[in-house]
Structure formats: C-alpha cells, structure tokens
Design goal:
With 274 residues, the protein is α/β, with parallel strands linked by helices. 35% of the residues lie in helices and 14% in strands. The protein is built from 9 helices and 8 strands. It has helices spanning 33-42, 57-69, 87-94, 118-127, 143-150, 174-183, 211-221, 241-251, 257-272; strands spanning 3-7, 47-51, 73-78, 100-105, 133-136, 158-160, 189-193, 226-228. Helix 5 packs parallel to helix 6 (174-183) and helix 6 (174-183) runs parallel beside helix 7. The longest helix has 16 residues, at 257-272.
Length: 274
C-alpha cells in the first residue's frame, strides 16, 4: 500500500485557526476528505494518516469522526493536553478509538525548552501504556532540546515531522545536518519526508533545491525509518500534490523497489501500526 503519512483536515475557523496568516489566505477555507480523495486516487495513494492541526480534544474527536465515514483515513494522530495532571485519564478515554495511533503538540510555536518541561515529559511517559506514537513538530533551531528530549525515552516511538523544517530558502544546511544526523542515532526515531515545499520560497523552487536535504535525511535515517508525507493542504501554498510525490519518486528512481515500498507506505504502516 502507498500511504501518505501526513495530511490535515479542518473546517476553517478564523479564531481557532489563527495560525493561518494573511499570506496563507488560500488556506482560509474548509479542507475535508472529499477535497483530497480524488487527488489521492490520481496519485495512486491508498490511504493517509490524519494529523492534528488544532490544539484541542475537539480536534481529536473531529478526526475520529471523519475516519468513520472515510476508510482512506487509516490512522489519526490526535491531541490531548500532555501537560495536564489528568493525562492518563484522557488517554484511557481515547483508547476506545482504535483509529488513534498517536499524538502531537505544535511544539514549533512553543518556547525553546518546551520539550524539556517536566509536566510535558510526564505526559510522554503516559503514552507507553497504550503503545501510542508521538510526532515531533519543530523547526531546525529547536533540534538541540529535541535531542535531549528523545534521549530520555529510549522505547517511545517518535517521528520527526517535515525533517525538522530546515531553512531551504536560505540554503542553510550545516547545523541542521549535524543535529539531524545525531537525532537519527536514536533507533526509535523515524522521520517524515514531508512539508519541505513550504520551507523554501513558495512556488519559486526547483527540484534540485531539495536534493542536498534529501541526501542528508536518507543518509542519516536510511530507508527503514523514513516515510513519505505530503503535508496537504499546507503544501499547496508552494506547489501541488503530484509535484511533491513525483519529486520524491524521481529522487528514489535508482533505489531498489524494496526501499521505495518502505518509504512510500510500509514504514508508515509499521510505525503507526495501521
């Protein structure tokens, strides 16, 4: 199966979705499974993982409900307040929904040391009892605390979203390369090859802009711990779905079929237990 490991759905709400700024005005509308399914079909993608965009339990319920009527949604990465003392009770409640595979918090919008907060780490500890995964959403400059964070949880399954958002627009690569390579030394950490379109000049990129970054990611994680993702609909700010999928396919054209199958689906199935 081909799996897109990272998509979002929302009914646009200008208060809740205040992160969608003026220059992102094309995102200020509803993006629901009905808008994506024909795109998945055209691109020979069999299913997707729906990842939280809002920071509320309502978001988790919303994605679970969508999955009930759209079998293409193979898994949900929801949100609970991992800093709350009642986190175990909330995880227990949500465990009734088998479609939920893990959780995420929008750490890229938090202070630099957020991942090292004791209350947040207590929440991460609580995930193990349910075999939940955790998606790490950070910018490249937050990799140092993220490294310290993952070193505390050797058995927790983590995935770095969007390759930790390297600064492709300014061609900054060195510091990110060192830290991401160090991150890959942790065998419980995977990485999503996703979201890179929006880390360069929107709609002014060429495929070659991404190759040095893909080289780093593939060398660091290998094909056993990388997963294709689109970051739809956010990626539409800078390109269209077929451009990203075909760019990655072109990059991997000389890889053996077994490795391509891993990156485009099997690793997501393994990681999220789809």
């Amino acid at each position: 199966m081909t799996i897109d490991s990272h998509v979002h759905f929302w009914k646009y709400d200008k208060v809740r979705d205040a992160w969608i700024t003026t220059e992102m005005k094309s995102l200020k509308q509803d993006y629901l499974p009905a808008h994506l399914l024909s795109t998945l079909k055209r691109n020979d993608v069999d299913g997707c993982v729906a990842v939280q965009a809002g920071q509320s339990e309502y978001e988790t319920h919303f994605l679970v409900e969508l999955s009930k009527t759209h079998p293409e949604i193979k898994g949900v990465v929801g949100w609970v307040d991992l800093q709350n003392k009642n986190v175990e009770e909330r995880l227990q409640f949500f465990s009734q929904y088998g479609i939920i595979k893990g959780y995420r918090h929008v750490v890229q919008a938090e202070p630099g040391n957020f991942l090292l907060r004791e209350d947040f780490q207590n929440g991460i500890k609580a995930l193990a009892a349910y075999q939940y995964t955790y998606d790490i959403l950070i910018y490249h400059h937050q990799l140092k605390p993220a490294l310290e964070f993952v070193s505390k949880f050797h058995r927790q399954k983590f995935v770095i979203d969007h390759c930790a958002k390297p600064d492709i627009g300014k061609k900054n690569i060195d510091d990110w390369k060192v830290l991401l390579t160090e991150m890959a030394q942790h065998p419980n950490v995977y990485c999503k090859v996703s979201g890179l379109f929006t880390e360069t000049r929107w709609k002014q990129w060429s495929a070659g802009d991404f190759y040095p970054y893909l080289d780093v990611v593939f060398e660091a994680f290998g094909t056993d711990r990388l997963m294709f993702g689109s970051d739809w609909p956010v990626m539409l700010l800078s390109g269209i779905y077929v451009q990203w999928k075909s760019l990655l396919e072109k990059y991997m054209e000389n890889f053996v079929e077994e490795d391509r199958l891993k990156v485009f689906g099997e690793n997501a199935i393994t990681f999220y237990n789809l």
